[in-house]
Amino acid sequence: MSLQAHPADVVEAPAEDLAAAPLDITALTRALARGDESAYRTFYEAYFQRLFHYLLVVTAGDEDAAREALQATLMRVVRHIKPFTDESVFWNWLTVLARSAITDQTRKRRRYLAFLDRFTSHARAQQSVSEDTDAEAQLSTLLDRALEGLPEEERALMEQKYFARESVRDIAARLQTSEKAVESRLVRVRHKLKQAVLDELRKLKR
User: Fold this and answer.
1) Cα(29)–Cα(58) distance, rounded to whole angstroms?
2) The whole model's pTM is what?
3) Is 144 a member of any domain?
4) Is 111 part of any domain?
């Protein structure tokens, strides 16, 4: 069983919709743990908007980050759901999953930024440049050149993940492949990009 969030689904939900029919959390979570399809539909209707709004607050209004974290949160619900007897405890558990998804998302982005930062550090160490701005301008040029040198599908993959900030799940769905396959391709392309830039730096040093 999987749950997937779509931007078109992100609309305001009348508050009375949730208040009209109080949920039996014990029955709902037990059914979710069994993988009951109707229970997942009920959960989605009751908690999708609530979680999205919570994540909007956590991300300071960043809708793209909130949607990406929501996708991850829903998948964690599917993998880790267990019976609960109290709605407030269940909601607290959901917010823990949501905050964890945000933390993981931020960590991944920081890893990529660190990857780019290493290029900057390397450029400063390898080049006799009087001003930091000159070194960074040079590095930016080399990165652009390396990206342009990638095959079209690899360049598109990097742009989708790191510039358009699409989730691996969305990319995998569009390419009709697995998330693991997309992650593997990203690793290979990052390595190729890094090597291309370092090769250019070595040439400039000679």
Assistant:
1) 25
2) 0.47
3) yes
4) no
